[in-house]
């Protein structure tokens, strides 16, 4: 199966090469030229790991031994055998994506990516080691460290803004063990760290380094494809619970940032899974809501800081893949992305907008509404959710109320409530004073919901990575690794 850029049909590369490269040479994202044949009903029969194996083998056929790679990625690392269980809460199913090693939904993909990357490297006979460079505003850094630590032939280097991540997120990263991990604070904000990483990639393009640079971002098809599995798993869980019959369509409401999670849902649908409407949930940064309703994508607006920081984003990279999938027109995608880059805005043709609206629906909610939902779901259902999940819940409620669609609805839950203890405590009427660790303990005492072990054992652990540098020093830091 051959891949090419969303911005041009040539050159074509195999799936192992697409994983190794991440971004296509013209700046577009890799997509398969044609989607694989897939037996979706057979896929529903197995365990979550069986599902992963079948889906990843279909998308990445040039990477051998998928069964072993999936086992290495997931065995013993998640809280449940299901990996991503769906629980029933009120009228909705809640698909819990935060049961992995760092309590973030990114664990599902970042547990798998290192396996795919090293296997692709071997398949291509690449001799040099790979160094993963990542700038993080919090969650991605830790999930990537956890996925890549001690993986042979790969190193990982994470930059985070000093003072720009939460206490818990910092503690998660600076206590990371492993002989191939580097974590470094940068004096500046997240944009400074991210720009610094981009500059390193540019500066190193011509250099003979001892390692090849790569990224753990969801632009890589090897990070996107592992996320398809949990839509199948959730569908199976609804079948097993008697909530649906085989073939019934299910709607999914997805808290969205970079559009990777929800795009994986659309790919599941293209593989045959009976997915109904995909609901794109945003916070006050509602670029995508405006786009899906109007066809105009306009990033010319301030980025707002919200209680759901992983969705604070103005340019959703993976939307480019959807535009390609629905139009099949690389020239159009290339033109629209050019406009986004130079003018900050583009409008899709009417026919493409109609196709988008056939598959997707969008809504957003502000922090006050998210807090109202966290409080209400806790009081009425005894279920504690985080602010990202609350945005998904809000959009699911809006969709049901405005369309009258009564099909089964699953809300994707992307973070443990313990990762955002202040927002959650305040929403259920608790006292938010003290450190984040004190807040976690209070949330636990108030609700009885267990603290995930990786978070409850963090306080007081030895800090191994204490470097702080200026943004101008990032390149020399990497070159000294
Ligand atoms: C990354 C993230 C999201 C957004 O997912 P995308 O794939 O970027 O759309 C939502 N919630 C949480 C908690 C996240 O970490």
Structure description:
The chain is of the alpha/beta class and 481 residues long. The protein has a domain at 86-104 and 224-419: Rossmann fold. Helix content is 44%, strand content 16%. It has helices at 15-21, 40-43, 48-59, 66-74, 106-123, 139-148, 167-174, 190-204, 221-224, 229-240, 260-270, 287-294, 319-327, 330-343, 350-359, 367-381, 387-403, 421-427, 436-447, 453-456, 474-479; strands at residues 2-5, 13-14, 30-32, 86-89, 92-96, 129-135, 154-161, 181-187, 211-214, 250-255, 275-282, 296-298, 345-347, 360-364, 409-413, 468-470. The strands form 4 sheets. A 6-stranded mixed beta sheet has the order 4-5-15-10-11-14, sandwiched between helices. Strands 9-6-7-8-16 form a 5-stranded parallel beta sheet. Strands 2-1-3 form a 3-stranded antiparallel beta sheet. Helix 5 (106-123) packs across helix 6 (139-148) and helix 16 packs across helix 18 (421-427). The longest helix has 18 residues, at 106-123. The model has no long low-confidence stretch (mean pLDDT 95). Bound molecules: pyridoxal-5'-phosphate.
